[in-house]
Structure formats: C-alpha cells, structure tokens
Predict the 3D structure of the following.
Amino acid sequence: MGEIDTRMVMPEALVQALADVKKQFMSRLVPSILEIEALQSELRDPLKAPAALERLSFIVHKLHGLAMTVGFAELGRCAADLDLRLRAILSELENSALQVGLAEALEDLMDQMEDAVLA
C-alpha cells in the first residue's frame, strides 16, 4: 500500500510528477488530521457547525481526489464515502439525523490517514 505502480511504461517526467504529488500529499496528512480533530469539536457548537462542515467537506473532497492517485486506495474509498455524506449533510443542515455516526466516520477516515502516514 502507498506505492505508485510504475510497471507501465511512463515518461520519467510523469513518474517524477506523481512522486512529487505523493510527497506533498503525505506532508499534508498530519496537519489535516489535526485540523479534522479541531473541526470535530466545532461541530458541537451550533453556531460554528455549518462552517466546520464546509471546511471538513473541503478537506475530505481533496483527500478523495488525491488518495487513490498516489496509491492509497482504501483511504480514497473512505474519503469518497465521507465526501458524499458531507455533501448530503450540507444540503440539509436542518436534518440532524444525517449527522448520526459522523464522528465515527471521521474517526475511520483519520485512522486511514494515520495508516498512510505510517506506510
């Protein structure tokens, strides 16, 4: 897990570009985990929750978009599921039932992110 498959013939420039993207992705994982943890506490405050959800959606969407590209398929799938869930929550903020289990889903995502850091 975590390795970019270069068995296919790729131009060296593309191999290097993917390696650079992966390096940037990896360098952002720990700060993103810390930000997600901080945003989780803001979800408990009704005044801060909408902005926290927007920011979480942004972070998760970026993870979803890059994780599989740089070789973290399970993290990408987890982020994709959470991305859809956050979009649903944002579209119906008044429906608190959509937020049931969100904390656990965020914990699962952060576990996947920590696994990627350790890979």
